Amino acid sequence: MPHLASPKVILYFLFLAVLDGSVMPAFQIHSVYPSFLYLFICYAAFEWGAPKTVHVAFWVGILRDLLGGGLIGLEATLLVALALALDFLVQKMERELPGIYFLMTFLFVFCAGALRLLVSCSGELPASLIGGHLGMIAMTALYTSALLPVFNFITNRWLGRASTRQYELFR
User: Fold this and answer.
1) Per the domain annotation, does 168 fall within a domain?
2) Count of domains in the chain?
3) Does 116 have pLDDT greater than 70?
4) Residue 171, domain member (yes or no)
5) CATH code for position 16
C-alpha cells in the first residue's frame, strides 16, 4: 500500500486530473463522460481503507472545486462525506458477491452527482428539468462504473497491488 505523498501516487493523481479535464470530454456520449477521479476514490476505498480514502476524496474535491469554478470546498465536503459512507459500506459488504464493486461505484458516482446537483442548483432548476439531469447523472455513473475493471487493472499495475487483508479468528 503506497503512501499518499509518494511521487508515484501524486503523479498518478495528476495524470487522472489531466485525463478528466482534457481527454475524457473527447470520449463523451450524448454529453456524458466518465470521471477517473471518482474511480480513484472508489479504488482507495476498496483497496486502502478509510483514512486514505478520506484524504483522496478531499484532494479530488478540492481539485474539482478549483477547476469547476464553484464554491470552494463544496464538492470536497460532499466527496468526503460520501467517501466515509462508501468506506463504511465497503467494510460491511460481502466481497465475493459478483458485481458488488460495480454497484458500489455506480452508487457512489450517482450520489455524488445528485448531491452536487441538489446543493448547487437548489431552487434554481425547474422541476421538469431535474429528471433529465438525474438521467444524465445516472448515465455518467453507469459509464464510469463500466470502466472500473480496466481502471483497477491499470492502477494495480502502476501503484502495485495492495496486500490482501487477512482476518484472524479469535479463539
Assistant:
1) no
2) 1
3) yes
4) no
5) 1.10.1760.20
Would you say 84 and 50 are in contact if contact means Cβ atoms under 8 Å apart? yes
pLDDT given at position 106: 94
In a domain, 110, yes or no: yes
pLDDT at 109: 92
Is residue 119 scored above 90 in pLDDT? no
Q: What is the DSSP string of the chain?
A: ---TTSHHHHHHHHHHHHIIIIIGGGG-BTTB---HHHHHHHHHHHHT-HHHHHHHHHHHHHHHHHHHTS-TTHHHHHHHHHHHHHHHHHHHS-TTSTTHHHHHHHHHHHHHHHHHHHHHSTTTS-HHHHHHHHHHHHHHHHHHHHTHHHHHHHHHHHH-PPPPP--PPP-
Query: Which residues 6+ apart lie within 8 Å of 43 measured at CB?
Result: 151, 152, 155
C-alpha cell at 95: 466481497
DSSP labels, 29-65: BTTB---HHHHHHHHHHHHT-HHHHHHHHHHHHHHHH
